[in-house]
């Protein structure tokens, strides 16, 4: 955004729609009404479970616990991301747009979309890190999540995403590939003379590589920690461990694919089917957490059922982490899996 606001001449040089007429730009677009509506519908239905989940977290006072504070932040980021990957992308596909002639709109939306992705994906890593801290309780790290201190971690995520707003270039959407690209002239013929180097976003690339490495590593550490605690207690794999393994696999899978392939497709041409699949995977990476919460978290599930049925939601305050105590290692303590985040 800094380029658009404070270096406007350079911005106009790099994002120049005068190479072709408006009619020519529109001719390169590929409208796809069914696909556009599919993006919108998927985004809409992925958003539906999230809203009651967040309401339940607030009404039950679960947000007093650090993990649930982070979940609310992640949920807000997921909902905003679904607006981009579902609503905005879907409408662009329906109308068959390319970056030009409305390149300023694309740039601003793409810039905000990248910032939202940065905040949301980093907060997912923070949530996994918090689970590891809750597991082993290292003194200073554990205390850094107590009470209102968690908000400082979330403030860090917000400041980090704001840096993307200021210094990172924006994405632009193009139906030549049905995806968001940093190169505004992606797949447009007759523009081979343009130097594409300035459109490379190293910030986004390094961020995604960090997510690809950090998220599976933290979940692997968490699962191994659960296994070790179960082993040291002389017990077999508990239900909590199985749930965490299931949840970790799907959360990591969708986020990993979204981050890795979206970086890859900026440099290497991919079939349109793959581009479409990446956008859907991005949507699932944002919508899957709410679905998993409803499946594995009894507290949230019971609250959502009560909310839908018009019943009073019971206030609950978690007093233990996901698996720090012997009781949570024991298979008979099935009720404790309500604390799985």
Q: Any idea what the shape is?
A: globular
CATH class wording:
Mainly Alpha
Query: CATH homologous superfamily, by name?
Result: Rhodopsin 7-helix transmembrane proteins
Structural class: mainly alpha
Strand content: under 5%
Question: Describe it for me?
Answer:
It comes from Steinernema carpocapsae (Entomopathogenic nematode). With 341 residues, the protein is an all-alpha fold. The protein has a single domain (1-309), classed as Rhodopsin 7-helix transmembrane proteins (Rhopdopsin 7-helix transmembrane proteins, Up-down Bundle). The chain has 14 helices and 2 strands, in the order αααααααααββααααα. The protein has helices at 2-6, 8-14, 22-27, 33-47, 50-59, 66-95, 103-136, 139-143, 150-167, 202-232, 239-264, 272-296, 298-308, 326-329; strands at residues 172-174, 179-181. A two-stranded antiparallel ribbon has the order 1-2. A hairpin with a 4-residue loop joins strand 1 (172-174) and strand 2. The longest helix is centred in the middle third of the chain and has 34 residues, at 103-136.
Descriptive labels:
341 residues; disordered C terminus; 14 helices; Rhopdopsin 7-helix transmembrane proteins; two-stranded antiparallel sheet; mainly alpha; 2% strand
């Amino acid at each position: 955004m800094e380029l658009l606001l404070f270096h406007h001449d350079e911005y106009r040089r790099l994002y120049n729609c005068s190479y072709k007429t408006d009619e020519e730009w529109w001719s390169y677009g590929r409208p796809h009404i069914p696909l556009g509506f599919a993006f919108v519908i998927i985004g809409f239905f992925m958003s539906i479970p999230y809203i009651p989940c967040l309401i339940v977290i607030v009404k039950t006072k679960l947000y007093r616990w650090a993990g649930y504070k982070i979940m609310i932040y992640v949920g807000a980021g997921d909902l905003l991301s679904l607006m981009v990957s579902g609503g905005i992308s879907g409408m662009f596909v329906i109308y068959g747009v390319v970056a030009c002639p409305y390149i300023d709109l694309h740039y601003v939306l793409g810039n905000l979309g990248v910032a939202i992705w940065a905040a949301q994906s980093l907060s997912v890593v923070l949530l996994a890190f918090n689970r590891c801290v809750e597991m082993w309780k290292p003194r200073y790290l554990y205390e850094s999540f107590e009470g209102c201190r968690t908000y400082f971690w979330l403030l860090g995520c917000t400041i980090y995403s704001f840096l993307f707003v200021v210094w990172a270039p924006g994405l632009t959407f193009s139906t030549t590939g049905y995806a968001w690209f940093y190169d505004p002239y992606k797949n447009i013929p007759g523009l081979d003379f343009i130097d594409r180097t300035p459109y490379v976003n190293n910030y986004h690339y390094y961020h995604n590589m960090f997510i690809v490495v950090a998220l599976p590593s933290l979940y692997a550490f968490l699962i191994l920690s659960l296994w070790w605690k179960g082993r040291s207690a002389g017990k077999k794999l508990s239900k909590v461990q199985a749930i965490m393994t299931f949840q970790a696999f799907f959360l990591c899978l969708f986020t990993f694919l979204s981050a890795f392939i979206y970086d890859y497709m900026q440099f290497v041409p991919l079939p349109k089917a793959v581009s479409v699949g990446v956008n859907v995977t991005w949507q699932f990476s944002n919508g899957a957490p709410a679905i998993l919460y409803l499946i594995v978290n009894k507290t949230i599930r019971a609250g959502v059922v009560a909310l839908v049925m018009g019943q009073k939601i019971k206030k609950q305050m978690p007093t233990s982490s996901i698996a720090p105590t012997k009781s949570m290692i024991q298979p008979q303590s099935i009720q404790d899996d309500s604390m799985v985040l």
